[in-house]
Amino acid sequence: MALLRFGADAMPSAIESSEGYWASVWRRLRRDKVAMIAGAVVLALILMAVFAPYIVPADPFSGRMLRRLRPIGTEGYPLGSDELGRDMLSRLIYGARMSLLMGVTPVIIAFGLGSTLGIVAGYLGGWFNTIAMRTIDIFYAFPSVLLAVALSGALGAGLTNALVSLSVVFIPPIARVAESVTTQVRNRDYVEAARASGAPGFTIVRVHVLGNVLGPIFVYATSLISVSMILASGLSFLGLGVRPPEPEWGLMLNTLRTAIYTQPWVAALPGAMIFITSISFNLLSDGLRSAMDVKQ
Amino acid sequence: MSAAAPLDRGGPAQPLLTVRGLVKHFAVKGSLFGAKAMVRAVDGVDFEILKGETLGVVGESGCGKSTTARLLMHLIEPDAGTLIFDGETVGDGGLTMREFRRQVQMVFQDSYASLNPRLTVEASIAFGPQVHGVQARQAVDRAHGLLDRVGLDPSRFAGRYPHELSGGQRQRVNIARALALQPRLLILDEAVSALDKSVEAQVLNLLLDLKEEFGLTYLFISHDLNVVRFMSDRVAVMYLGKMAEIGPAGAVFDKAAHPYSAALTRSMPSMDPDHRTEEAPIAGDPPNPINPPTGCRFHTRCTFAESVCSTRVPALDPVGPEGGPSHLAACLMHEPGSGHSKAEAS
């Protein structure tokens, strides 16, 4: 059964085509100044992470004990130096790599697994839904920090285990959002009409459900990126995630906390980076949410 | 597309769809320890749809009209009941549900909600045929042909999204989508009720044209009695999940046998000043279907109700010579020997 590709590009050229869905989302997003600025910041952070080795002014790993905790603006240390005399600017740039990795990877994994689970549970309903969602509620009942720490601790220290435990932490909330959106869409008349045409469940989900639920789930998932970064920082602090001397913003924040009375501005820098990154992701996902609202 | 099934298996006298004992009770949440209450949405409905006719279904909100439609399509699983499509039982080794759904299609009331907002008009129409094995190319061609047929220029409308269309245009798309599977029976569930009067008239005329062109049979569900009278050959009147009366449109509207149908037809707004609507013939809301009245369900609001009406359940029987054998009503006044003072003694 060769099903037509359902999208603007499947249209024969002779047909007057109206603007595709994603084109209209992009048009609305472009008019949203806040979202565009947030998007630019996110893009800059990603570029910074990718090209970190080429743009750092100094080696982020080698420090000089005689030049510890220099204030912002010191000669040779534009953003000061940390408790081991390493260049803060270079470490912040390098830190973007690990922090973005810790922020984005668990959310991507949880988005894949959680939305699959939620969509299947929401579409099937009945006893499968009850079993799946109640199981998820058990995980959801734990505070997310506690769950992440407990899982990480049980799995053992290390970057991979930290990513795994963070992914597990984010599956329940994403699955719940996916389930509730799918339950709504499942009862729409167009899904009924598709069932009335005799289409098998898998085809209905693929053609009629996915396109209408992935947007809201995606937007929700992007809002978890900042949470993931903060949780990852917490794990690193406990020695369960990233290990020193690897620069990671959460870890840097924690190692610099003893210097908060001597160099408060330097100590606050990693926190500022986490704040800027998470608020940019949040504003961007907010903008996406309103741009994806099709009924305008 | 299976062209194997002969188009007219049982001959013209064989009803296209026979419905026997259709029942659906919905469980509503009771108290924590109490027994679950049941809404008797459809409670034992029998009727036949003849080939090539339009059967209108009327009744108040909540009488089970739409539930009946959804039960026929098996969008909701019925608790009991048999469907016989052109002489063949649906399910149980007879006609498969998939094939039945190709032969019977439905147009919903809400033209916007019944179209996927993410799909273009042509993709929505072409979906059904593709599910039944038509190649993408041919399915799109068929979609364009149908768009043209329902009065929408394919070169202008095929690539549009539902939110770019008006209500009438969307309902035309829904009709084209239903016709794309080349069904024999079309269920129109309040299909024109949400449209403006002028658009409604256009769509009704389109439906009449399509019926003639494709040899369709309609099950036309509506609360608008004038529209039902305009469209229907026969009319079924439902009350609280049961069939109150069924018969030729003229007989039901002019010589209603059941007091409920009589009250309904008397309440029809009329344009003729000599036949103006005089009084509200039935008062109050219909009783709660969770706990419907015993005996005849209409006895709580019926002007002719007697004590027997609250104990004895009337059967759907022919109402006598003047209505003809095809005119049935479920009323004790027409049941000889029922004990009602207006009934003939047996």
Automatic annotation (TrEMBL), chain A:
GO CC field: plasma membrane
Transmembrane segments: 34-56, 100-126, 138-159, 217-242, 263-284
Keyword annotations from UniProtKB, A to Z: Cell membrane, Membrane, Transmembrane, Transmembrane helix, Transport
GO terms of biological process kind: transmembrane transport
Main location: membrane
InterPro entries linked to this entry: BP-dependent_transpt_permease (IPR050366), MetI-like (IPR000515), MetI-like_sf (IPR035906), OppC_N (IPR025966)
CDD domains (alphabetical): TM_PBP2 (cd06261)
Topological type in the membrane: Multi-pass membrane protein
Family named by the database record: Belongs to the binding-protein-dependent transport system permease family.
Name by which UniProt lists this protein: ABC transporter permease
Source lineage: Bacteria, Pseudomonadati, Pseudomonadota, Alphaproteobacteria, Rhodospirillales
From TrEMBL, chain B:
Any one GO molecular-function label of the UniProt entry: ATP hydrolysis activity
Coiled coil: none
Location of the region described as Disordered in the Swiss-Prot/TrEMBL record: 266-290
Entry's Gene Ontology BP terms: peptide transport; transmembrane transport
Keyword Transmembrane helix: no
Record's keyword annotation contains ATP-binding: yes
Alphabetical keyword list: ATP-binding, Cell inner membrane, Cell membrane, Hydrolase, Membrane, Nucleotide-binding, Repeat, Translocase, Transport
Primary residence: membrane
Gene Ontology CC: plasma membrane
Catalyzed chemical reaction(s): glutathione(out) + ATP + H2O = glutathione(in) + ADP + phosphate + H(+)
Domain ABC transporter: 17-265
InterPro entries: AAA+_ATPase, ABC_transp_ATP-bind, ABC_transporter-like_ATP-bd, ABC_transporter-like_CS, Oligopep_ABC_C, P-loop_NTPase
Domain of life: Bacteria
Membrane topology category: Peripheral membrane protein
Enzyme nomenclature, EC number: 7.4.2.10
SMART domains in the record: AAA
Subcellular location: Cell inner membrane
Subunit details: The complex is composed of two ATP-binding proteins (GsiA), two transmembrane proteins (GsiC and GsiD) and a solute-binding protein (GsiB).
Family of this protein: Belongs to the ABC transporter superfamily. Glutathione importer (TC 3.A.1.5.11) family.
Function comment: Part of the ABC transporter complex GsiABCD involved in glutathione import. Responsible for energy coupling to the transport system.
Name by which UniProt lists this protein: Glutathione import ATP-binding protein GsiA
Organism, scientific name: Oceanibaculum pacificum
Highest classification ranks of the organism: Bacteria, Pseudomonadati, Pseudomonadota, Alphaproteobacteria, Rhodospirillales
